[in-house]
Amino acid sequence: MIIHFKETGITKGCIKTENTIFFISIFQSSRRRQTIFVRALNVGGNLVKKIWVKAIPWDKNVVTTALESGADGVMVPKGFSEKVKELGVITTIAEDGDLKLNKDVVEWEIKGKEDETKILQLTKNALVIVRTTDWTIIPLENLIAQTQGLIVEVNDEKEAQTVFGILEKGVDGVLITTPDLNRIKKIIEIAHRDSELVHLIPAKVKKIEPVSMGDRVCVDTCTSMNIGEGMLIGNSSKAFFLVHSESIENPYVEPRPFRVNAGPVHAYIKVLGGKTRYLSELKAGDEVMVVNFQGKTQPAVVGRIKIERRPLILVEAEAQGEVCSMILQNAETIRLTAPDGKPISVVELKKGSEVLVSLEEAGRHFGIKVEETIQEK
To answer: Which is nearest to 49 in space by CA: 39, 38, 64?
Structure first.
């Protein structure tokens, strides 16, 4: 497969425009299937997390693992960029790479306060790989609060999770330094998961109908959600409604921004990594996915699950010719999410109301999407 980017003037593994760098990696497997990863860095805006893997000294297996796992770049010794290109198309970071060390990318070790000042100066003109002998998040907190363009060296999954979560915003990327192939795969999986986006579209409500009693699940998390945030819940695995958090002031109960009154025990909840769980399976300590009306996601830890018998209501809606449905508790405090992010109570829904949904092809096996003929009604 050949990808042409006109008028960029750059033909290798990254494409630079005035405001954006696109990282392209193409891996050709032995089965003739190509996996394409395109990631963008908005320079001067919000940065998409970058995933680089260090292959110094040269290690072909490390580079191949980086390509297969969807890394954005590999750091290699001088003279080895062409060897990388023989394996696949991916950005190289080297003295003679696509991104040139000591010019486009600078390495700096934090030893004291004066190093933080130097790094702030360097990030004005380059991406900075930050290293620290005494691994701590305090210097990183200071830097993240003041600048962008920070790549931090990590050696294991725990370090990666920590640096992505500092000040909620996290660092802009990681350079994976371990030669352990399994660990490289796990760190890249964490990085992809934490930057996951969900495609949401408006669906028009076609039917609202009270049904009888059922066991309803409240998901209480360790995260306070804002207006426009909730969880994706569905009767089937082909369509998920964005059920809004209880972050709204109302005359009946105090706001509980940590909670989503999600639906009955049978319903699916979409979680990170493209997987689903049944609401009835969740328990304290599990990880769920919070989604906002723009499709941005973040992980949240379950603190408690409450299952209680309550009156229910059926909502049917249509999007892109697909009819989808959701059962929720029949109460004023239960809300779906409108395309503009505003919550809309189930008791205020009427035919023609628009709510946000995420559509997929039906078919799940133990929560993992599979390609097979399955009908869910």
So the answer is: 39
Q: How far apart are CA 77 and CA 362, in angstroms?
A: 46
Question: Which phi and psi angles does 98 have, rounded to 5°?
Answer: -60, -45
pLDDT digits (tens, 9 = 90+) for 353-365: 999 999 986 544 4
User: What tens digit of pLDDT does each residue of 211-264 get?
Assistant: 999 999 999 999 999 999 999 999 998 899 999 999 998 777 889 999 999 999
CB 217 within 8 A of CB 251: no
Residue with tokens 């294991």: 156
On whether both 225 and 284 belong to a single domain, the answer is: yes
Indicate the pLDDT class of residue 61, thresholds 50, 70 and 90: very high
Looking up residue 333, the CATH number of its domain turns out to be 2.170.16
Give φ, ψ of 68 to 5 degrees: -65, -30
Regarding whether 246 and 133 lie in a shared domain, the answer is no
pLDDT at 308: 97
Pairing outcome for strands 239-244 and 259-264: unpaired
Estimate the crossing angle of helix 60-69 against helix 181-194, to 10 degrees.
30
Distance of CA 350 to the CA centre of its chain: 33
Domain presence at residue 3? no
Closest CA to 24 of 42, 8, 33, 11: 11
CB burial of 326-348 (b: ≥16 within 10 Å; e: otherwise) equals bbbbbbebbbbbbeebebbebee
Handedness of CA 342, 347, 349, 355 (dihedral sign): positive
Predicted local distance difference test score (pLDDT) of residue 105: 92
For residue 336, what is the DSSP state? E
What is the predicted pLDDT for the residue at 38? 37
CA atoms within 13 A on the CB side of 175: 24
The answer to whether the pTM exceeds 0.70 is no
Strand partners, 26: 36, 89
Q: Do the Cβ atoms of 357 and 324 come closer than 8 Å? A: yes
